[in-house]
Write the structure tokens for this entry.
Amino acid sequence: MAFISGSRGPDRQSDYKFIPRSCPIVIDNGASTFRIGWAGESEPRITFRNVVLRPRHKITGETVTIVGDHDPALLKYFDCTRSSHRSAFDSNVVYQFEIMEYILDYGFERMGVEGSRVDHPVLITECACNPIQSRSKMAELLFENYGVPSVAFGVDAAFSYKYNQRLGICDRDGLAICSGFTTSHAIPFVGGEPVLEACCRTNIGGYHVTDYLKQLLSLKYSNHMSNLSWEKVEGLKMEHGYVAQDYASEVQLFQTGTKAAEEKTRCWQLPWTPPPTEVPISEEEIARKAAIKEKQGQRLREMAAAKKSSRISDMENELHGLEFLLNELKTVKENDIQSFLSQTGYVSKQEIESAVVRVTQSLRRAKGEPVEVEDKAEASAAEKYSLINIPDNMLSPDQQKEKKRQLLIKTTTEGRQRAKQKRFEEELERERKNQEDEEKRLENPELYLEELRTKHRELSEKVEQRKRLKTNGPRTNGNQNLSSSVGRGERLNAAQKERMRLLTTAAYDRGKGEDTFGIKEEDWQLYKLMSKDNDDDDEGPDDDEAELVRITSRLQDIDPAFIPKVESSSYQTVTHIRPLTKEDFQITIGVERFRCPEILFQPNMVGIDQAGLDEMAGISIQRLPLKGDGVEDRITHSILLTGGSCIFPGISERLEAGIRKMRPFESPIRVVRASDPVLDAWRGAAAYAASDQFLLQTFSRQDYYEKGEEWLRRYRLRYTI
Amino acid sequence: MKLEGYQNMEAEVVEAEMVLPQRLSFKRVQMSEKYPKGQARARWKLLKQIIQAENYQNYPPNEPNYVNIESPPSMYPSKKFCDITGFEAPYVDPKTKIRYANADVFKRVRALPNDYVQRYLALRNAAIVLK
């Protein structure tokens, strides 16, 4: 077979020109997989997933079409951000014929079709009772676009049944139970022909099983979501899924945690590399590092010292220069001062003097000697603020500006002094308080300590309470608190919540009866409570907190038994983080192994209110138009399980048990699995199309246009030919 | 058949033949002519709309069609299973409406964030859907 799964798509067939024109092309157009091949052969030539991806090629910018699955590594050349895998199916009906056309294009192209049309009859599968619109669109597409000479439609489950009948696995009368990708069908056969009047369909299939497993696992292991791709979960389902004989007792095993359950649990280890273990650092290493650090520190200190000394010498030089300049200035005559100064860059003698003062100060600062600038400033206050007391109208504009500046300086310095004074007084007060405390303590140490402790306890409770109120809100007005601790309520603090409550009641309560708002004085208080800045007038707690801090420190000093309370809640969460282990990267599936396939029997579990596989068999038999003559027993004696979702181990036994419950006592019941639940539909169709009588079951383009829609609606293949 | 218009692609891509050729000799109308670039496409009718257009009510009820072959609801009383563990669930959490098996699971239910609760409920089509 040319089909290579995995890295590469199917190869293009090279023998097209050797196939006779009369040989039909057989297509099993399943919702999950598309299979195409030649009538009379035992295997389809081409098989691929029935999906289309239309990404943009990164270099050329061209939108391209990729049908089926391909090597994921090659997708790096394409920009897939705006497209995903798309299917032509809605449930099990083809509705998107643009996608269908891409799929058919690819199928025929891979079959090696050459020439101007697809000059072979086509047999294509469809779902049971396909809506006429879908059927006619498909026929139109095949006739108009590919120039197919004739077309036949058949049901996949029926082909599978006929194929297995030929193999002797099932009888002329029987029941096909076909669980596909999105739907499951039960189709009874009487006299070798399917009785569509009696068939039934439940909208559940392998897709739902995989989706259920994927959702459950991603809810359970939300941190490993990226590992749980559709393909991977599908693989898990195929490998580990099974159908329980009795769901309730099977689940009981797991609930009580028996050994059998443990053995049934599977574990999937995700790729994980242990973090590098830290080697304890040796003594020498520590010493070596300390030495290096010391050396570096030494170097930095030296650099800083060198810089300082150079700065000092610079400033000394400057000072010498300035002093020299002043000395020179003394010798120069009064008239020549101007010309002399113009060479030096200074304007007046005062300026040089002030420069001397400045340099001396910074020199002192650099050498680390105390600076006594403030006294000087004090002394010269009168002349510094010389302009302040002179009225504005007596000053020139420049002087006015100067006056403003002086005013500013004066107020700021005064402010600073006041603050200093205040600090000093506070210091004194604290000292005094401590002194008093100390005296008290010396008088009666025991009593004092006890008092201090109670005070500390009271205060800390008070502060705590306030904090809680601020974040959680009081329990008394908490009806909204209780009902919804999740969602919007939780984000607001108590004050905000209270405000919201006031706003809403203000909006609604006024409607009742007469509007008396505003008659009483207190009514207007409401607005004050509502206003936004209402909730931040909390000076009280600040005082309390300060007091608490003082008492705590005092207790720490004198009480040996005192342990300061650490802020509890925030700390605990931090300390509990542990390093991730191998176990954190394991996905265990226990109950899920049979919980997910169980939805085939109980679609209710995923909210689909329809009968499960076992009940479907009963419903189908009930719907039979012609009963009696032991036909029901013959049917239940030949129940065939087919379709991709019938591969689960245990499914036939479960189905048999389920059907036995519905049938009369001692009815003959035999459930068999198709020889190949996945491929038999195509094989049956290929064998069918190879028969001489096949062409009588097809219709041509002319038939299609002449006989009309009503005829196409009634069109039904005869499966026994 | 050579891949027209795909000359500028990587050798690997061309070699894998993963891209569908733009022109196929056996087609009467090529895709690019049928669905020209940049033109708004007709929306395909969804299955629901197709069924509605079929007017099944006009046909005799004993004639099988896509709608009347559907299975009826199950005759068995539906069992309740724990949304989280899959065990049989005797209890329902009145707050989240999640079914749970025992006290241990209940603790987990109460610790679940709201969106997880909704996702669990959505699994059995019981989530609150805002429209």
